[in-house]
Amino acid sequence: MEFFNDVIGVITAPGWRHFVGALLCAIGGVSTVIAAAGVLRFPDFYTRLHAASVTDTLGALTLILGMAFLAPGLLIVFKLILIGLFLVLTGPTSAHAIANAAYTAGLEPIIGKIGLQKAKEEDEA
Amino acid sequence: MLYVMGLATALTLLWLGMSGIYEPVVLSLGVISIAITVILATRLGLKDRETSPYHRIIPFLLYTPYLIKEILKANLTVIKAVLKPDMDIQPTMVKVKTTCRSDLAKVIFANSITLTPGTVTLRVDDDSMLVHGLYEADAQPEAFEEMDRRSSLAGDGRPSKEKGTSK
Predict the structure, then answer these.
(1) Is the predicted pLDDT of residue A46 greater than 60, yes or no?
(2) Separation CA A46–CA B129 (nearest Å)
């Protein structure tokens, strides 16, 4: 209960800074949850990787931006910028490493339409 | 020498930003550790264009607004694809030609492709990249031309249509 009071306190605190920060954090959290749903829904390894990269970019970066708005001092903002820079550099590199490893190992990606679209096409054919 | 200076400046900024305590004792510790790092980096021979690309910071900063715009657009596409009840994705693989010459520009281009959701670089060759895309219509080679031009501008410092090395 105390936690919820804290959350409400942050959102309703005076000043637009807290409001913007909380809003950005909420966007980041929601998009991360959507990305997790995508990882579960998409059919094969490569398409799941695309869903996961939403957490890397929109999720993590808006969360960090929101935290920067909520931060009490400029030193914290500097550290958050460094974390964001680190994520931007390492995120795609690790994603590329995983994708390249899968491709080199010979995992064949699904190409073309999938799911209901494919079923519909096969029905027509 | 210029690269050593760049490295020292970057390390100093990093120390000042990370520590937050500006007392003589802590600052002198910072000076000592920066000096040791620079000496070690020099002895390892890590002082060329590739290892301290600080001269590229301004072109790269000019590149970031475009990259952020692309990332936001691509994020919306992927989020829509995830939330659609009938999944309508069409995974595809394309070979994308690149005009980037230096390794730095190629890294910027490949990482930009991977960073935008919906496209992942699978393999990087000398002048082309293998890209896996979520939508066939969005992942045509022409779609990457602007990103290629801009990242070669950010990494090589010129919109390289002609061949040549920047090293």
Answers:
(1) yes
(2) 16
Size of interface A-B (CB pairs under 8 A): 127
Nearest to A66 by CA among A10, A3, A9: A10
Residues B83 and B143 in one domain: yes
Q: What pLDDT was estimated at residue B163?
A: 42
Q: Does residue B67 share a domain with residue B110?
A: yes
B108 and B79 belong to one structural domain? yes
Cβ B120–A46 below 8 Å, yes or no?
yes
Which residues form the domain of A20? 2-124
Burial per residue of A101-110, b for 16 or more beta-carbon CB atoms within 10 angstroms, e otherwise: ebbeeeeebb
ipTM of the complex: 0.73
- Counted domains in chain A: 1
Contact B123, A103 (CB under 8 A): yes
pTM exceeds 0.80, yes or no: no
Residues B11, B34: contact at Cβ < 8 Å? Answer: yes
* CA nearest to B94 within chain A: A111
The answer to whether residues B124 and B78 belong to one domain is yes
Q: Provide the chain B residues 6-25 that lie in CB contact (below 8 A) with chain A.
A: 14, 17-18, 20
Least confident of A101-110, A114-123, B74-83: A114-123
Domain with B26, as residue range(s), is 2-43
